[in-house]
Amino acid sequence: MKNISKSLREKILTLTEEYYKETFKNSIIPGKNQIPVSGRVFDQHELYNLVDSSLDFWLTEGRYNDEFEKELSKFVNVNFTATVNSGSSANLLAFSALTSPFLGKRAIKKGDEVICAATSFPTTLNPVIQNGCVPVLLDVSIPEYNIPFRSIKKNITAKTKAIFLAHTLGNPYEVKELAEFCKKEEIWLIEDCCDALGALYDGKKVGSFGDLSTLSFYPAHQITCGEGGAVLTNSAILNKAVRSFRDWGRDCWCAPGNENTCGIRFNWKLGDLPRGYDHKYIYSHIGYNMKMTDMQASIGLAQLGKIKRFVKKRNENHTLLTEKFKAFEKYFILPKATLNSNPSWFGFVLTVKKSAPFTRGELIKYLEEYKVASRFLFAGEISKQPAYKNIKFKKPVSLKNSKLVMNNTFWIGCYPAINKYIIQYIVKVFNDFLRQYEN
Ligand SMILES: Cc1ncc(COP(=O)(O)O)c(C=O)c1O
Questions:
Q1: Ligand 1 center to residue 324 CA distance, Å?
Q2: In CA terms, which of 122, 304, 338, 435 is 20 to 30 Å from 22?
Q3: Which residues form the signal peptide (predicted)?
Protein backbone atom coordinates (compact mmCIF):
# COMPACT_ATOMS: atom_id res chain seq x y z
CA MET A 1 0.00 0.00 0.00
CA LYS A 2 1.33 3.48 -0.90
CA ASN A 3 2.30 5.66 2.10
CA ILE A 4 -0.37 8.26 1.34
CA SER A 5 -3.14 5.59 1.24
CA LYS A 6 -1.78 4.02 4.42
CA SER A 7 -1.91 7.27 6.34
CA LEU A 8 -5.39 8.08 4.97
CA ARG A 9 -6.55 4.66 6.10
CA GLU A 10 -5.11 5.19 9.56
CA LYS A 11 -6.91 8.55 9.78
CA ILE A 12 -10.22 7.00 8.74
CA LEU A 13 -9.86 4.23 11.29
CA THR A 14 -8.94 6.62 14.10
CA LEU A 15 -11.96 8.76 13.20
CA THR A 16 -14.13 5.62 13.16
CA GLU A 17 -13.20 4.89 16.77
CA GLU A 18 -13.97 8.51 17.71
CA TYR A 19 -17.27 8.26 15.83
CA TYR A 20 -18.23 5.21 17.87
CA LYS A 21 -17.52 7.01 21.14
CA GLU A 22 -19.55 10.03 20.08
CA THR A 23 -22.48 8.18 18.57
CA PHE A 24 -23.36 4.92 20.27
CA LYS A 25 -24.68 4.93 23.78
CA ASN A 26 -25.86 1.47 24.65
CA SER A 27 -27.49 1.96 28.05
CA ILE A 28 -31.11 0.92 28.70
CA ILE A 29 -33.13 3.05 31.12
CA PRO A 30 -35.61 0.69 32.84
CA GLY A 31 -39.20 1.90 32.63
CA LYS A 32 -38.30 4.37 29.88
CA ASN A 33 -36.75 2.10 27.24
CA GLN A 34 -38.00 -1.35 26.47
CA ILE A 35 -35.82 -4.07 28.00
CA PRO A 36 -35.08 -6.24 24.97
CA VAL A 37 -34.71 -10.00 25.16
CA SER A 38 -31.45 -9.71 23.25
CA GLY A 39 -29.46 -7.42 20.99
CA ARG A 40 -26.09 -6.53 19.62
CA VAL A 41 -23.43 -5.54 22.16
CA PHE A 42 -20.39 -3.97 20.56
CA ASP A 43 -17.79 -1.22 20.82
CA GLN A 44 -15.32 0.62 18.61
CA HIS A 45 -13.52 -2.62 17.66
CA GLU A 46 -16.45 -3.96 15.62
CA LEU A 47 -16.81 -0.62 13.84
CA TYR A 48 -13.04 -0.43 13.23
CA ASN A 49 -12.97 -3.91 11.67
CA LEU A 50 -16.04 -3.21 9.55
CA VAL A 51 -14.60 0.00 8.10
CA ASP A 52 -11.16 -1.59 7.70
CA SER A 53 -12.72 -4.43 5.73
CA SER A 54 -14.83 -2.06 3.64
CA LEU A 55 -11.65 -0.16 2.70
CA ASP A 56 -10.19 -3.45 1.38
CA PHE A 57 -13.31 -3.53 -0.80
CA TRP A 58 -12.73 -7.27 -1.23
CA LEU A 59 -16.44 -7.79 -0.37
CA THR A 60 -16.69 -11.59 -0.63
CA GLU A 61 -14.89 -13.91 1.84
CA GLY A 62 -11.28 -12.86 2.35
CA ARG A 63 -8.66 -12.25 5.04
CA TYR A 64 -11.13 -11.50 7.83
CA ASN A 65 -13.20 -14.57 7.00
CA ASP A 66 -10.09 -16.81 7.02
CA GLU A 67 -9.23 -15.52 10.48
CA PHE A 68 -12.80 -15.78 11.75
CA GLU A 69 -13.13 -19.40 10.60
CA LYS A 70 -9.77 -20.25 12.19
CA GLU A 71 -10.68 -18.63 15.51
CA LEU A 72 -14.13 -20.28 15.59
CA SER A 73 -12.55 -23.71 15.04
CA LYS A 74 -10.11 -22.98 17.86
CA PHE A 75 -12.81 -21.76 20.24
CA VAL A 76 -15.21 -24.69 19.73
CA ASN A 77 -12.29 -27.12 19.30
CA VAL A 78 -13.17 -28.60 15.91
CA ASN A 79 -11.08 -29.16 12.78
CA PHE A 80 -13.17 -27.22 10.24
CA THR A 81 -15.48 -24.21 10.17
CA ALA A 82 -17.30 -22.90 7.11
CA THR A 83 -18.96 -19.53 7.59
CA VAL A 84 -22.33 -18.92 5.91
CA ASN A 85 -24.93 -16.17 5.57
CA SER A 86 -27.27 -17.29 8.42
CA GLY A 87 -27.91 -19.95 11.05
CA SER A 88 -30.79 -21.20 8.92
CA SER A 89 -28.44 -21.63 5.97
CA ALA A 90 -26.00 -23.41 8.29
CA ASN A 91 -28.75 -25.87 9.24
CA LEU A 92 -29.76 -26.43 5.61
CA LEU A 93 -26.13 -27.01 4.59
CA ALA A 94 -25.36 -29.30 7.53
CA PHE A 95 -28.32 -31.54 6.76
CA SER A 96 -27.81 -31.37 2.98
CA ALA A 97 -24.17 -32.44 3.45
CA LEU A 98 -25.49 -35.71 4.88
CA THR A 99 -27.17 -36.44 1.53
CA SER A 100 -23.85 -36.14 -0.34
CA PRO A 101 -22.79 -38.99 -2.63
CA PHE A 102 -19.35 -38.54 -0.99
CA LEU A 103 -20.83 -40.56 1.93
CA GLY A 104 -21.63 -43.65 -0.13
CA LYS A 105 -24.02 -46.04 1.65
CA ARG A 106 -24.33 -43.77 4.67
CA ALA A 107 -25.80 -40.87 2.68
CA ILE A 108 -29.27 -39.82 3.85
CA LYS A 109 -32.05 -40.59 1.38
CA LYS A 110 -35.61 -39.39 0.88
CA GLY A 111 -37.97 -41.12 3.32
CA ASP A 112 -35.29 -41.63 6.02
CA GLU A 113 -36.43 -40.71 9.52
CA VAL A 114 -34.82 -37.97 11.59
CA ILE A 115 -35.41 -37.33 15.29
CA CYS A 116 -36.27 -33.69 16.05
CA ALA A 117 -37.69 -31.86 19.06
CA ALA A 118 -41.44 -31.21 18.93
CA THR A 119 -40.60 -27.64 20.02
CA SER A 120 -37.93 -27.08 17.33
CA PHE A 121 -37.03 -23.73 15.85
CA PRO A 122 -38.48 -23.84 12.29
CA THR A 123 -35.19 -23.84 10.44
CA THR A 124 -33.82 -26.68 12.55
CA LEU A 125 -36.70 -28.78 11.26
CA ASN A 126 -37.11 -27.39 7.72
CA PRO A 127 -33.94 -28.91 6.20
CA VAL A 128 -35.26 -32.37 7.13
CA ILE A 129 -38.49 -31.65 5.24
CA GLN A 130 -36.71 -29.87 2.37
CA ASN A 131 -34.59 -32.99 1.82
CA GLY A 132 -37.64 -35.27 1.71
CA CYS A 133 -37.04 -36.97 5.07
CA VAL A 134 -39.60 -37.69 7.78
CA PRO A 135 -39.29 -35.77 11.06
CA VAL A 136 -39.96 -37.88 14.16
CA LEU A 137 -41.06 -35.44 16.85
CA LEU A 138 -40.26 -36.25 20.48
CA ASP A 139 -41.33 -34.46 23.63
CA VAL A 140 -38.99 -32.20 25.62
CA SER A 141 -38.48 -32.28 29.37
CA ILE A 142 -39.37 -29.26 31.49
CA PRO A 143 -37.45 -27.33 32.91
CA GLU A 144 -34.55 -28.28 30.59
CA TYR A 145 -36.56 -27.92 27.32
CA ASN A 146 -34.52 -30.64 25.56
CA ILE A 147 -35.34 -34.27 24.71
CA PRO A 148 -33.89 -36.56 27.40
CA PHE A 149 -31.32 -39.05 26.06
CA ARG A 150 -33.30 -42.01 27.41
CA SER A 151 -36.32 -40.97 25.34
CA ILE A 152 -34.23 -40.67 22.15
CA LYS A 153 -32.73 -44.12 22.75
CA LYS A 154 -36.16 -45.64 23.28
CA ASN A 155 -37.53 -44.20 20.04
CA ILE A 156 -34.75 -45.23 17.64
CA THR A 157 -35.92 -47.56 14.86
CA ALA A 158 -34.19 -49.14 11.86
CA LYS A 159 -35.39 -46.15 9.83
CA THR A 160 -33.69 -43.54 12.07
CA LYS A 161 -30.77 -42.13 10.10
CA ALA A 162 -30.10 -38.84 11.88
CA ILE A 163 -30.80 -36.75 14.96
CA PHE A 164 -30.99 -32.98 14.56
CA LEU A 165 -31.41 -31.06 17.81
CA ALA A 166 -30.79 -27.57 19.15
CA HIS A 167 -29.34 -26.99 22.61
CA THR A 168 -32.45 -25.10 23.66
CA LEU A 169 -31.81 -21.54 24.82
CA GLY A 170 -28.16 -22.38 25.40
CA ASN A 171 -28.90 -25.28 27.77
CA PRO A 172 -27.01 -28.38 26.49
CA TYR A 173 -28.68 -31.74 26.10
CA GLU A 174 -26.85 -34.93 27.10
CA VAL A 175 -24.71 -34.62 24.00
CA LYS A 176 -21.75 -36.76 25.08
CA GLU A 177 -23.91 -39.82 25.72
CA LEU A 178 -25.93 -39.10 22.59
CA ALA A 179 -22.84 -38.71 20.36
CA GLU A 180 -21.34 -41.97 21.67
CA PHE A 181 -24.64 -43.77 21.05
CA CYS A 182 -24.98 -42.30 17.53
CA LYS A 183 -21.46 -43.34 16.62
CA LYS A 184 -22.12 -46.93 17.73
CA GLU A 185 -25.45 -47.10 15.89
CA GLU A 186 -24.19 -45.28 12.74
CA ILE A 187 -26.75 -42.50 13.13
CA TRP A 188 -25.74 -38.96 12.16
CA LEU A 189 -25.90 -36.26 14.83
CA ILE A 190 -26.23 -32.55 14.05
CA GLU A 191 -25.98 -30.15 16.98
CA ASP A 192 -27.78 -26.88 16.35
CA CYS A 193 -25.71 -24.58 18.57
CA CYS A 194 -27.27 -21.39 17.20
CA ASP A 195 -28.38 -20.38 20.70
CA ALA A 196 -25.54 -22.04 22.60
CA LEU A 197 -22.10 -20.78 21.56
CA GLY A 198 -19.79 -21.19 24.56
CA ALA A 199 -21.91 -23.75 26.43
CA LEU A 200 -20.13 -26.79 27.86
CA TYR A 201 -21.20 -30.37 28.38
CA ASP A 202 -18.91 -32.59 30.42
CA GLY A 203 -16.34 -29.78 30.26
CA LYS A 204 -16.28 -29.68 26.43
CA LYS A 205 -17.79 -27.07 24.11
CA VAL A 206 -21.11 -27.98 22.55
CA GLY A 207 -20.63 -28.13 18.80
CA SER A 208 -17.61 -30.42 19.18
CA PHE A 209 -19.58 -33.65 19.85
CA GLY A 210 -21.79 -34.19 16.78
CA ASP A 211 -20.85 -35.05 13.20
CA LEU A 212 -21.78 -31.48 12.31
CA SER A 213 -22.83 -28.44 14.28
CA THR A 214 -24.21 -25.02 13.41
CA LEU A 215 -24.07 -21.44 14.69
CA SER A 216 -26.08 -18.28 14.08
CA PHE A 217 -24.74 -14.75 14.24
CA TYR A 218 -28.05 -12.91 14.02
CA PRO A 219 -28.02 -10.07 16.61
CA ALA A 220 -29.98 -12.10 19.17
CA HIS A 221 -27.16 -14.61 19.54
CA GLN A 222 -24.05 -14.83 21.73
CA ILE A 223 -22.05 -13.06 19.01
CA THR A 224 -23.29 -11.24 15.94
CA CYS A 225 -22.27 -10.33 12.39
CA GLY A 226 -25.70 -8.79 11.66
CA GLU A 227 -26.59 -11.84 9.62
CA GLY A 228 -24.40 -14.91 9.52
CA GLY A 229 -23.78 -18.44 10.64
CA ALA A 230 -21.31 -21.30 10.46
CA VAL A 231 -21.13 -25.06 9.98
CA LEU A 232 -18.50 -26.88 12.04
CA THR A 233 -17.20 -30.44 11.79
CA ASN A 234 -14.22 -32.62 12.57
CA SER A 235 -14.65 -34.57 9.33
CA ALA A 236 -12.70 -33.56 6.21
CA ILE A 237 -15.25 -35.24 3.93
CA LEU A 238 -18.24 -33.52 5.58
CA ASN A 239 -16.40 -30.20 5.44
CA LYS A 240 -15.84 -30.73 1.71
CA ALA A 241 -19.53 -31.54 1.18
CA VAL A 242 -20.68 -28.50 3.23
CA ARG A 243 -18.41 -26.17 1.26
CA SER A 244 -19.55 -27.64 -2.04
CA PHE A 245 -23.27 -27.19 -1.17
CA ARG A 246 -22.49 -23.69 0.11
CA ASP A 247 -20.57 -22.67 -3.05
CA TRP A 248 -23.11 -23.43 -5.81
CA GLY A 249 -22.58 -27.21 -5.51
CA ARG A 250 -19.19 -26.97 -7.18
CA ASP A 251 -16.54 -29.68 -7.01
CA CYS A 252 -13.71 -27.11 -7.03
CA TRP A 253 -12.47 -25.83 -3.65
CA CYS A 254 -10.52 -22.73 -4.71
CA ALA A 255 -10.98 -19.70 -2.43
CA PRO A 256 -12.51 -16.62 -4.15
CA GLY A 257 -9.95 -15.00 -6.43
CA ASN A 258 -7.79 -18.17 -6.62
CA GLU A 259 -7.59 -20.79 -9.31
CA ASN A 260 -6.02 -24.20 -9.91
CA THR A 261 -5.60 -24.97 -6.18
CA CYS A 262 -5.94 -28.67 -7.11
CA GLY A 263 -3.14 -28.37 -9.69
CA ILE A 264 -5.15 -30.28 -12.33
CA ARG A 265 -7.87 -27.74 -13.15
CA PHE A 266 -8.15 -28.80 -16.81
CA ASN A 267 -7.54 -32.52 -16.35
CA TRP A 268 -10.57 -33.80 -14.39
CA LYS A 269 -12.90 -36.50 -15.69
CA LEU A 270 -16.13 -36.41 -13.65
CA GLY A 271 -19.73 -37.41 -14.42
CA ASP A 272 -20.49 -37.54 -18.14
CA LEU A 273 -18.44 -34.41 -18.87
CA PRO A 274 -15.57 -34.54 -21.34
CA ARG A 275 -12.09 -34.90 -19.79
CA GLY A 276 -10.54 -31.50 -19.10
CA TYR A 277 -13.81 -29.67 -18.44
CA ASP A 278 -12.87 -26.63 -16.27
CA HIS A 279 -12.98 -27.85 -12.64
CA LYS A 280 -14.29 -24.41 -11.59
CA TYR A 281 -17.51 -25.30 -13.41
CA ILE A 282 -17.95 -28.92 -12.36
CA TYR A 283 -20.83 -29.51 -9.93
CA SER A 284 -20.98 -32.51 -7.61
CA HIS A 285 -24.05 -31.39 -5.59
CA ILE A 286 -27.34 -29.57 -6.14
CA GLY A 287 -26.04 -26.54 -4.29
CA TYR A 288 -26.73 -22.97 -3.23
CA ASN A 289 -24.72 -19.81 -2.66
CA MET A 290 -24.69 -19.14 1.05
CA LYS A 291 -21.34 -17.49 1.63
CA MET A 292 -20.64 -14.76 4.14
CA THR A 293 -19.02 -11.46 3.14
CA ASP A 294 -15.69 -10.35 4.58
CA MET A 295 -17.39 -7.34 6.18
CA GLN A 296 -19.66 -9.64 8.19
CA ALA A 297 -16.66 -11.78 9.17
CA SER A 298 -14.74 -8.70 10.31
CA ILE A 299 -17.51 -7.90 12.82
CA GLY A 300 -17.68 -11.55 13.90
CA LEU A 301 -13.97 -11.62 14.60
CA ALA A 302 -14.19 -8.60 16.93
CA GLN A 303 -17.21 -10.19 18.63
CA LEU A 304 -15.48 -13.54 19.08
CA GLY A 305 -12.74 -11.73 21.00
CA LYS A 306 -15.41 -10.88 23.59
CA ILE A 307 -17.16 -14.26 23.76
CA LYS A 308 -15.85 -15.34 27.18
CA ARG A 309 -16.97 -12.04 28.71
CA PHE A 310 -20.35 -12.28 26.95
CA VAL A 311 -21.06 -15.81 28.17
CA LYS A 312 -19.95 -14.94 31.71
CA LYS A 313 -22.29 -11.94 31.82
CA ARG A 314 -25.24 -13.92 30.39
CA ASN A 315 -24.73 -16.60 33.00
CA GLU A 316 -24.31 -14.11 35.88
CA ASN A 317 -27.57 -12.43 34.86
CA HIS A 318 -29.25 -15.83 34.66
CA THR A 319 -28.03 -16.77 38.13
CA LEU A 320 -29.29 -13.50 39.58
CA LEU A 321 -32.68 -13.88 37.89
CA THR A 322 -32.94 -17.46 39.19
CA GLU A 323 -32.18 -16.30 42.74
CA LYS A 324 -34.77 -13.51 42.57
CA PHE A 325 -37.45 -15.64 40.92
CA LYS A 326 -37.26 -18.26 43.69
CA ALA A 327 -39.73 -15.95 45.45
CA PHE A 328 -42.21 -16.57 42.61
CA GLU A 329 -41.83 -20.34 42.41
CA LYS A 330 -45.44 -20.77 43.43
CA TYR A 331 -46.40 -19.49 39.96
CA PHE A 332 -43.54 -20.48 37.65
CA ILE A 333 -41.41 -23.47 36.77
CA LEU A 334 -37.89 -22.04 36.88
CA PRO A 335 -35.18 -23.05 34.36
CA LYS A 336 -32.65 -25.73 35.20
CA ALA A 337 -29.26 -26.47 33.65
CA THR A 338 -28.87 -30.04 32.38
CA LEU A 339 -26.82 -32.19 34.75
CA ASN A 340 -23.09 -32.15 33.89
CA SER A 341 -23.43 -28.96 31.81
CA ASN A 342 -22.45 -25.28 31.93
CA PRO A 343 -25.00 -23.51 29.72
CA SER A 344 -24.41 -20.32 27.76
CA TRP A 345 -27.86 -18.96 28.60
CA PHE A 346 -29.67 -17.38 25.68
CA GLY A 347 -32.61 -16.22 27.80
CA PHE A 348 -34.34 -16.74 31.15
CA VAL A 349 -37.15 -19.19 30.46
CA LEU A 350 -40.28 -19.53 32.60
CA THR A 351 -43.34 -21.77 32.38
CA VAL A 352 -46.50 -20.50 34.05
CA LYS A 353 -47.68 -23.34 36.29
CA LYS A 354 -51.06 -24.83 35.42
CA SER A 355 -52.16 -23.93 38.98
CA ALA A 356 -51.37 -20.21 38.52
CA PRO A 357 -54.35 -17.84 38.86
CA PHE A 358 -53.37 -15.94 35.68
CA THR A 359 -52.57 -16.87 32.10
CA ARG A 360 -49.35 -16.33 30.19
CA GLY A 361 -51.24 -13.90 27.96
CA GLU A 362 -52.33 -11.73 30.91
CA LEU A 363 -48.80 -11.61 32.27
CA ILE A 364 -47.17 -10.84 28.90
CA LYS A 365 -49.61 -7.98 28.32
CA TYR A 366 -48.63 -6.51 31.70
CA LEU A 367 -44.92 -6.92 30.94
CA GLU A 368 -45.34 -5.15 27.59
CA GLU A 369 -47.10 -2.26 29.35
CA TYR A 370 -44.09 -1.90 31.66
CA LYS A 371 -41.59 -2.29 28.83
CA VAL A 372 -40.24 -5.73 29.64
CA ALA A 373 -39.98 -7.62 26.35
CA SER A 374 -40.52 -11.37 26.24
CA ARG A 375 -40.67 -14.13 23.65
CA PHE A 376 -42.42 -17.47 23.40
CA LEU A 377 -40.25 -20.56 23.10
CA PHE A 378 -40.02 -20.13 19.35
CA ALA A 379 -42.61 -22.12 17.40
CA GLY A 380 -44.18 -23.90 20.39
CA GLU A 381 -45.40 -27.35 19.36
CA ILE A 382 -44.25 -26.81 15.82
CA SER A 383 -46.54 -29.25 14.02
CA LYS A 384 -49.46 -27.01 15.09
CA GLN A 385 -48.09 -24.10 13.02
CA PRO A 386 -49.98 -23.31 9.80
CA ALA A 387 -46.94 -23.96 7.57
CA TYR A 388 -46.74 -27.58 8.74
CA LYS A 389 -50.39 -28.48 8.32
CA ASN A 390 -49.76 -30.92 5.46
CA ILE A 391 -46.36 -32.21 6.54
CA LYS A 392 -46.07 -35.88 7.37
CA PHE A 393 -44.65 -36.19 10.89
CA LYS A 394 -44.22 -39.19 13.13
CA LYS A 395 -45.20 -38.65 16.75
CA PRO A 396 -44.48 -41.90 18.60
CA VAL A 397 -44.95 -40.45 22.12
CA SER A 398 -47.25 -38.05 23.92
CA LEU A 399 -46.21 -34.43 23.40
CA LYS A 400 -47.72 -33.18 26.63
CA ASN A 401 -44.74 -31.04 27.70
CA SER A 402 -44.47 -29.52 24.24
CA LYS A 403 -48.13 -28.59 24.50
CA LEU A 404 -47.43 -26.92 27.84
CA VAL A 405 -44.51 -25.05 26.20
CA MET A 406 -46.86 -23.87 23.45
CA ASN A 407 -49.42 -22.57 25.96
CA ASN A 408 -47.50 -21.52 29.07
CA THR A 409 -43.78 -20.92 28.35
CA PHE A 410 -41.98 -17.65 27.60
CA TRP A 411 -38.56 -16.13 28.17
CA ILE A 412 -37.04 -12.78 29.02
CA GLY A 413 -33.56 -11.42 28.34
CA CYS A 414 -30.31 -12.09 30.17
CA TYR A 415 -27.95 -10.83 27.45
CA PRO A 416 -24.87 -8.78 28.34
CA ALA A 417 -26.51 -5.32 28.07
CA ILE A 418 -28.71 -6.28 31.02
CA ASN A 419 -27.29 -5.37 34.45
CA LYS A 420 -28.33 -5.82 38.08
CA TYR A 421 -30.34 -2.55 38.09
CA ILE A 422 -32.34 -3.70 35.09
CA ILE A 423 -32.90 -7.05 36.80
CA GLN A 424 -34.10 -5.22 39.92
CA TYR A 425 -36.64 -3.40 37.76
CA ILE A 426 -37.77 -6.63 36.01
CA VAL A 427 -38.28 -8.32 39.39
CA LYS A 428 -40.29 -5.33 40.62
CA VAL A 429 -42.57 -5.48 37.56
CA PHE A 430 -43.20 -9.20 38.15
CA ASN A 431 -43.72 -8.57 41.86
CA ASP A 432 -46.27 -5.81 41.20
CA PHE A 433 -48.16 -8.07 38.80
CA LEU A 434 -48.15 -11.06 41.15
CA ARG A 435 -49.15 -9.02 44.24
CA GLN A 436 -52.74 -8.81 42.99
CA TYR A 437 -52.98 -12.62 43.34
CA GLU A 438 -51.57 -12.82 46.87
CA ASN A 439 -54.08 -13.19 49.67
C1 LIG B 1 -32.14 -22.82 17.51
C2 LIG B 1 -32.02 -21.95 16.30
N3 LIG B 1 -31.63 -22.50 15.15
C4 LIG B 1 -31.51 -21.77 14.01
C5 LIG B 1 -31.77 -20.42 14.02
C6 LIG B 1 -31.66 -19.64 12.73
O7 LIG B 1 -30.64 -18.69 12.73
P8 LIG B 1 -30.71 -17.42 11.75
O9 LIG B 1 -31.69 -16.47 12.32
O10 LIG B 1 -29.32 -16.88 11.74
O11 LIG B 1 -31.13 -17.90 10.41
C12 LIG B 1 -32.20 -19.80 15.19
C13 LIG B 1 -32.50 -18.36 15.18
O14 LIG B 1 -32.60 -17.66 16.12
C15 LIG B 1 -32.33 -20.59 16.36
O16 LIG B 1 -32.73 -20.03 17.52
A1: 29
A2: 304
A3: none
